[in-house]
Structure formats: C-alpha cells, structure tokens
Amino acid sequence: MSSAISPSPSAVDATKPKPRRPADYPPNGFGDFWQRKLRTSFRRMNRSGSGLLTRDDFRAIGDEMVRLGGLSGQRAEDVRAVMLRIWDDYYRPREGGSGISADQYVAQKCRMVNGPLRDDVTRYGQELFKAMDHNGDERISREEYRIFTEA
C-alpha cells in the first residue's frame, strides 16, 4: 500500500493551463513572409486560374478532398458542405461579385486574425478540422493532412 497522497481534483485543475483565446495573443503584423504564404495559398486554391477565389474553387477543393480521401456517402457530403460553409461564412464577397482577389484574400485573413472576426477564428478552425478529419476520430493523421494539402 502506498503512502503517497493523490492530489485532489481541484489541485490538479488549478495547475492545468487555461485554454487560450485569440484575444490572448497579440495582433499579427502580417509581414512579408506571411503575405507570401497567403498569396501562395490563394494561388493553390484558385482552381480556375481566374485570379479570383470563388465558391466554385471551394467546391472543387471539397471534391478533391473527397476524391483523395476515398470518401463516399454522408462523409463525402459533409466534407463538401464544410468547404462551402467556409466560403459562405468567411470569404464570400459582401459587396457583390462572385469572387475575391489575392489582395482581398490577404486582407480578409488579416481581419480574421486581428479584426472583428478574431473571436470566430476558433469556429473557422473547427470547421476546417471537420473537413480534414475524414474518419471522425477527432485527430488529423499524416494521411489526412497530406490529402488536405494536396487538395
């Protein structure tokens, strides 16, 4: 029999780090490095090559994730729906038009991280996570990540 005393649950909880929220971090300056990364992301996502990122591009990305992941049925539809919801909620032009330019994409990412959408970044990440987690095990495997980056 051990004489060690186990810490009470409240003592363990007190040492556990509290989850950080986006507001707990300083604003991102989006220097040249980040802007180059975002422009590369834009070019990869712009499937049509039109110079505008559109809902059809997000549909094509969802379709490619389904194809590469070998998904079918409800899971395939869920992935497609998440990609379209991301477009509708975060990228769809609010002032009309069917797409956004690379400059608008970079500006929107900056608003998402530093502006009024900052507190919504968690929901965006959760939506993206759902699309990437093909088998629903609440983990992103190397294969799932590879599929996402190739799509």
From TrEMBL:
Native source organism of the sequence: Macrostomum lignano
Gene3D superfamilies in UniProt: EF-hand
Question: Segment Disordered: which positions?
Answer: 1-29
InterPro entries named in the record: EF-hand-dom_pair (IPR011992)
Q: What is this protein called?
A: EF-hand domain-containing protein
